[in-house]
Input
Amino acid sequence: MKELREPAIIAAMTAVTFAIRFSFYALGDRIVFPAWARRALAYVPAAVLTAIIAPMILYPGGNADFGWRNPWIAGALASVAASLKLRNATAALAAGMIFFTAWKLLFA
Amino acid sequence: MLLGAAPFGLVFGAAAGPSGLSAGATLGMSLCVFAGSAQFIALTLVGGGAGLGVIVLTTCIVNLRHALYSATLLPYVARLPLRWRIPLAFWLTDETFAVVQNRLVRDGAEGRRYGSAGASADDGENRPVRDAVLRSRPGPEHWYYLGSALAMYGNWFAWTLAGMLVGSAIPDVEHLGLEFAMVATFIAMVTPSLANRPTLAASLAAGTVAVLLRSLPWKLGLVIAALSGVAAGMAAERLAPAGTKTGGHGKTSP
Output
């Protein structure tokens, strides 16, 4: 049964993603999207992505770690700073990885 | 924009193997799903042994903003035949949307025509946009959409492949390091949009709730956190009406 799992995952994800993207194109001229819903959707990516990473950063491995020694916190802060200062995704990624790895070596 | 997708593609390709995805599935995901943030989340879920239902729901939530793009571009594609609408929908991503929107607005401002036999006098309307809306057969702007979408698509696939090759060439790449790479990637995606206050509120609210509800089963904590974030963003909008951009339209994911 395990062999079926991967294609099933991909098929399901594809179906969902396409359904969303096609949702309005399919209807042609027949739908009006309420303004409030449009505004609400704009917040979804920031909310969802933050919701995913926040527990990973503050509870690595399931245990609370709010201290300065936490490599996830160090790396995350570095990424945020690099993103704000340099406005570059690759730089943010690199900065985060560098600080994360350094912290792990030094303090873990 | 093509280069912007590179780090995400690379990291996805490299992280997929250690998370338990086979090579075929990794490429298949990039080919069929073509949604960076959803693909990343699927990796953590697969790594954590999540069930299919959870993966589907999470994919749905993460990609919901594409419904917004779909709605916004709808006027331009509404009258196209179905065989156009389907592929255009498949390849709709943040970048494609941004690029297409940009082109439409720009051309409107410069008063360019797309072959409509109209009078030269400006009647105050945005002629090219109106022409695009009225058009029922594909015009240059539609080819532009298709072209940019295909470029992003090929690009994404190429970087995923590159990531897979690099990942296997460095056998002792730490699993945890790659997990953090996903975190850093998401931060890179979200941070630019946080300049907008309501979006910042949404992010903070969602993060807090997610941490508080982290122990709920079936990723319910995630769903509730996302909804809380959206609610917070909407509320913050109301509190600061003057001079605030509505919604956060920073670049998020390939």
Remarks:
- Chain B touches chain A through 99 residues (CB under 8 Å).
- Residues 109-127, 243-254 of chain B have pLDDT under 50 and may be disordered.
